[in-house]
Amino acid sequence: MRLADKVALITGAGRGIGRAIAEGYTREGARVAIADLDLDTARSTAAELSTGGGEVMAVGMDVTDEAAVDAGVRQVAEAWGRIDILVANAGIQHIESVDRLSLENWRKVVAVHLDGAFLVTRACLQRMYADGQGGCVLYMGSVHSKLASPLKAPYVAAKHALLGLCRSVAREGADHGVRANVICPGFVRTPLVEKQIPEQARELGISEESVIRDVMLKDTVDGEFTTLEDVSQLAVDLAAFPSAALTGQSVVVSHGWYMQ
Ligand code: NAD
Fold first, then answer.
1. Does residue 194 belong to any structural domain of this protein?
2. 226 exposed, middle or buried (CB, 10 Å; 0-12, 13-18, 19+)?
3. Is residue 125 part of a domain?
4. Rounded to whole angstroms, how far apart are CA atoms 82 and 127?
5. Using 50, 70 and 90 to split pLDDT, how confident is the model at 115?
6. pTM of this prediction?
7. Ligand 1, CB cutoff 6 Å, lining residues
8. How far, in Å, from the CA of 191 to the mean position of ligand 1?
9. At residue 54, does pLDDT exceed 90?
10. Among this protein's residues, is 155 annotated catalytic?
11. How many domains does the chain fold into?
């Protein structure tokens, strides 16, 4: 039990990568708050994980809503007395070229990834600093924190910006025992990715098979998708790491796509 007695809050944990991390954390003994825009999904995920023996709660939270974030973090801290681990994971995608992109769609994507990560970070840091027991902040970056693909400008820009937020939190958090790191997955077959396969096929004028083989997995070493388990395992390892030797870093988990 590598995370026994820890309290974790994970945004966007109703499904996909966030849910997989929640499963990994409960297996390692943490109490986990499943925060999601979609409260029904968060509730059913929480119910399923608690059936498996985990101590889990569902929190309705739009990460772009300052008041909702502050209230959600307060709810978790009051229920369980502390917050040790934050995983800022909630995310959306929008497929369009820069020349046709509306300011509204730009802002929508950046708001969820970047403003959302800032708001949950601030609320959790206030709690971690006040408790004086340190903590761990993990950002869900992407290989797109390191490089660009076409048709994803707001996503790529926001994922790059998370590196800067992480490094700032690593610097400031050190005095309080708080570490911050970024997880950078390659493509994982979640609803976010399933949705963009036909969208990219349409935009690029190629087949869906070609999007997978020639676009998404082209630069991996083995043509394989990264799995939910791969990302969840890394999130456990980073959260359980015992010292500030590992802070301010970004770890790519991608079958070799982008070697740093
Ligand atoms: P997903 O669409 O399966 O899940 C995203 C979750 O975030 C959903 O439950 C959704 O309700 C929630 N969400 C969306 N907007 C929200 C908001 N405003 N407030 C709170 N919750 C919100 O996506 P996923 O693939 O699991 O992606 C999770 C994270 O991983 C994202 O940050 C994404 O950019 C990142 N990522 C995904 C991949 C991939 O290939 N799937 C690769 C690299 C990084």
1. no
2. buried
3. yes
4. 7
5. very high
6. 0.98
7. 11-12, 14-18, 36-38, 41, 61-64, 89-92, 112, 116, 140, 142, 185, 187-188, 190-193
8. 8
9. no
10. yes
11. 1
